[in-house]
Amino acid sequence: MSKLYRAINKNETIRFFIINSTEIIEEMRRTHNTSTTATAALGRLTTMAAIMGSDIKNEKEKIILKVKGDGPSGMLISEINSKGNIKSYIQNLQVDIPSIVENNKLDVGSFVGKNGALAVIHDFGFGEPYTGQTSLVSGEIAEDFANYFYQSDQLPTVVTLGVLVDTDYSVKSAGGIFIQALPGYTDEDIDILEKCINNLPPVSSLFNKYESPEEILKIFFKEMEVEILEIEDRIYKCDCNRDRIEKALLSIGEEEINKIIEEDHQIELTCSYCNKKYNFTEEEIKDLLEKARI
Questions:
Q1: Structural domain total, the chain
Q2: Is 155 in the same domain as 280?
Q3: What SS3 class is residue 21?
């Protein structure tokens, strides 16, 4: 479990969201057995989902983030529901690329690709979901979301995300900080914020040194006199169940299902988010098809 801190400055003109997401990103890595760069890329997106979940207001609501560039990663997806449960998926989880030689930094931008799109799908649980989309600017995830929020909200926004992968491929530290000016902000607010951000180390190493988001706010944003408003739990947990998998199976179509039955006499489906396997016997499949016709 990780905890998201929501805070605001004394003047109530700058809002902050900050999370040490190490635990949920390590759980994500163990679930998918991702390569080093895939862990960093999907970890950043998962951390962003953890932050954006703060916008969820009702029980049936969920937010889905999708990133698709022209790099070898393929599609990346992260979804958060009203309970703070997050699940994520990456199309090519075992693919890896060399680090950037100069600073030994994982090259997430090249892994994701700079040409592509970012989509935010806000499903309210009723009616049509709201979808916002922007082009990628770097493939580094954080810069892409900063651009998304600037375009959608027309307010100065800072997004910093990071994942530090250890030599044994486990997640050593991970976290994210989202800062956004609110209507009524002043130039002085922005000047103070810029000074604070300029003193901020890379977020992956930041959370390796300081585990507590509260400590980070006090040390690096002291001049802004930040007050913590709320702390929310975040858990990496898939919400798949047999009913949903049955619907996914039926979506294949009766003709295709019958072909599989003739060849294998059973079907095994695996959840893309948690790798849980669901097995269906020939009798169970025929029963499902019969019920679907009614």
A1: 2
A2: no
A3: coil
